[in-house]
């Protein structure tokens, strides 16, 4: 193999490693009524590269299946906010070093706790000036596409779990409603039998 082809192949694989380098975390939390839950990620601005952090979330149970979500930079500046959403995605680019905070707030609810599942992942991209070959740009796009597919799969899993919980809850309600109707029906029948029996009963007069 010619030396320049070997160097090109090595360069392509290095770009793949840089473009696909990412971290991912999956969590499920309970957010009590009237409370909020906050989390932190320490991000660092990359030299000749950019770090993009994405938070994807979905409310899996409780109340109207909605939550408030926001993300702030290390100086407390709000980078994005979503109000009363059941699902959402928010991405930020680390333009400075420090601790980025993101919160899930259930302060709008007085009685209903919320179950929230969320994923946090980040991808390091090399700068455009460092990518000169079309194959390298395609590798970066492929890495981004793979991350998007992974997020979609996780979203589908959470969505299926939410629908399954809703179906099971509906089935339980129908079952107990049927039991209640049967109890009421037997009670009414018993009362009617007793009333008719007492109505036609001949009472002795002493």
From TrEMBL:
The keyword Signal applies. InterPro entries: Emp24-like, GOLD_dom, GOLD_dom_sf. Its main location: membrane. The chain crosses the membrane at residues 176-196. PROSITE patterns: GOLD. It comes from the Eukaryota. Residues 36-122 form the GOLD domain. Residues 1-26 form the signal peptide. SMART domains: EMP24_GP25L. Pfam families: EMP24_GP25L. It is a single-pass membrane protein; Single-pass type I membrane protein. It is found in: Endomembrane system; Membrane. The keyword Ion transport does not apply. Belongs to the EMP24/GP25L family. This is Emp24/gp25L/p24 family/GOLD-domain-containing protein. It comes from Lentinula boryana.
């Amino acid at each position: 193999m010619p030396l320049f082809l070997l160097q090109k192949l090595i360069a392509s694989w290095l770009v793949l490693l840089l473009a696909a380098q990412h971290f991912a975390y999956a969590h499920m939390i309970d957010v009590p009524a009237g409370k909020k839950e906050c989390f932190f990620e320490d991000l660092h601005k990359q030299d000749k590269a950019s770090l993009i952090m994405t938070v994807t979330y979905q409310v899996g149970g409780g109340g109207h299946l909605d939550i408030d979500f926001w993300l702030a930079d290390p100086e407390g500046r709000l980078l994005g906010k979503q109000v009363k959403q059941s699902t959402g995605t928010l991405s930020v680019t680390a333009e400075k070093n420090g601790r980025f905070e993101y919160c899930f707030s259930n302060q709008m609810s007085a009685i209903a706790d919320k179950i929230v599942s969320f994923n946090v992942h980040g991808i390091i991209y090399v700068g455009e000036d460092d990518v000169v070959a079309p194959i390298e740009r395609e590798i970066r796009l492929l890495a981004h596409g793979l991350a998007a597919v992974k997020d979609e799969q996780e979203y589908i899993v959470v969505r299926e779990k939410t629908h399954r919980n809703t179906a099971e809850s509906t089935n339980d309600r129908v079952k107990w409603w049927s039991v209640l109707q049967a109890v009421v029906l037997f009670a009414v029948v018993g009362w009617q039998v007793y009333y008719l029996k007492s109505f036609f009963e001949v009472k002795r007069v002493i």
